[in-house]
Automatic annotation (TrEMBL):
<dbReference type="InterPro" id="IPR053146">
    <property type="entry name" value="QDO-like"/>
</dbReference>
<dbReference type="InterPro" id="IPR011051">
    <property type="entry name" value="RmlC_Cupin_sf"/>
</dbReference>
<feature type="domain" description="Cupin type-2">
    <location>
        <begin position="67"/>
        <end position="128"/>
    </location>
</feature>
<dbReference type="InterPro" id="IPR014710">
    <property type="entry name" value="RmlC-like_jellyroll"/>
</dbReference>
<protein>
    <submittedName>
        <fullName>Cupin</fullName>
    </submittedName>
</protein>
<dbReference type="Pfam" id="PF07883">
    <property type="entry name" value="Cupin_2"/>
</dbReference>
<dbReference type="InterPro" id="IPR013096">
    <property type="entry name" value="Cupin_2"/>
</dbReference>
Length: 188
């Protein structure tokens, strides 16, 4: 069964009566994961809770400078919506500082990167579709430095993260350089 309008996807629920099956997550719920640097991840909707339709995380970055190297995903789109602070974002062509209310959509295969160079906390929503088990990726990043080059490359491929240099993944040094350059321009 499908709707008469071609603008709608295939029917996902085919019963005549609705169900009581919504989920509510109150404000103040503790984060699902706290990274070693203190950044927090709230897994608002996961692949499991949405039957693979999408994933939605609320990420709160500390003021620590860092982020990812440019990369792309083969199985999903990804979107960022900035709630507070400033996130340094690469859209495949240029870097820019995104702030409250800014939004970036990245289709599958779209090169992108993001991080914090402001030295101040920042918060954003991360939406990816279809849903993937990204929890293991973010929680596993703490162990990347201890991995061999082969283990690191396998970790990134397993989590659909394809970097320019698959042996490096997230690069901290270049983020420090970006922050220093940004600071020098702001003080002129």
């Amino acid at each position: 069964m499908s709707f008469l309008s071609p603008d709608y996807p295939e029917v996902l629920y085919d019963q005549d009566e609705g169900e009581v099956n919504a989920s509510f997550r109150p404000a103040g719920t503790p984060p699902d994961y706290v990274a070693p640097n203190g950044s927090t991840f709230h897994y608002l909707s996961t692949r499991l809770s949405t039957n693979g339709l999408y994933g939605l995380y609320q990420n709160r970055l500390t003021g620590q400078i860092g982020g990812t190297s440019p990369h792309f995903h083969k199985t999903m789109s990804e979107s960022f919506y900035i709630l507070s602070g400033e996130i340094h974002i690469f859209d495949g062509e240029r870097w820019f500082d995104a702030s409250r209310g800014d939004y970036l959509y990245i289709p599958p295969g779209g090169v992108h990167s993001f991080g914090n160079i402001s030295g101040e906390p920042a918060e954003f929503l991360m939406l990816f579709s279809p849903g993937a088990a990204r929890e293991g990726y973010f929680e596993g990043l703490a162990d990347v430095a201890a991995m061999t080059e082969e283990e690191r490359a396998a970790f990134f491929v397993r989590h659909d993260s394809f970097f320019t240099d698959m042996t490096k993944g997230p690069a901290a040094d270049s983020w420090q350089d970006r922050a220093a350059l940004r600071k020098s321009f702001k003080t002129r």
